Amino acid sequence: MLHYVTTNEGKVREAEEYLGDDVASVDYDYTEIQADSLEAVAADGARRAYEHVGEPVIVDDAGLYLDDFDGFPGPYSSYVEDTLGIERVGRLARREDATSARFRCVIAYCDGEPFEASPEPVDTGERRGQDLAADDRATATTDETVQGRDVPVKLFTGAVPGTIVEPRGEGGFGYDPIFEHDGTTFAEMDAEQKNAISHRGRALAKFAEWFQGRTA
Ligand code: IMP
Predict the structure, then answer these.
(1) What does the domain layout of the chain look like in residue ranges?
(2) Which of 45, 144, 162, 215 has the least CB density, counted as fewest CB within 10 Å?
(3) Which of 4, 29, 81, 102 to mutate to test the pocket of ligand 1 (most atoms within 8 A of CB)?
């Protein structure tokens, strides 16, 4: 059984369309590392989740990237949502005429086994502690920083371009109300419509196709 490790119900709803009954969601709240790439955060999360669950896991890390702000808030989207809030991020982007944006999503899969070469990247943990924030590195024990980092993790990415607008819509989660794609915000779409074009939908579609082959 595949386990989708997340505390975000919104993500689970979107994943069910691709993974159906083959996936169980696991509500495991671990402390994410700080790193300047979603790939590093997702790969580390998948290793921790696999250590915790002991069966195949996926975790997903996503973020909003403002093109004219060099990708801010990107991997720090969660912190910025909690501190500034999406309405202020939206106002800031519009005031600075920096409304061109994209969502990115990285799905990281780990089952403790190595992977065949394929177009999708494998994170082998070679960066070890390098991407950890200094504070994290200083407080982490040897076990936390090194143990399990050589377990390979397969990564699947998806992105979608859009425009930052005034909040509209009641659906979705996170930054969805201020992210417009083709005239509609993600919060105005139902899960099926959002999946058909979203960063997470694209990453999940790639993962689901590859995973079928792995389990066949
Ligand atoms: P995480 O991937 O759960 O760490 O989310 C990072 C940040 O991006 C959080 O603030 C989420 O609310 C936000 N986020 C992640 N995925 C989406 C999405 O599909 N739509 C809107 N916001 C998202």
Answers:
(1) 2-215
(2) 215
(3) 81
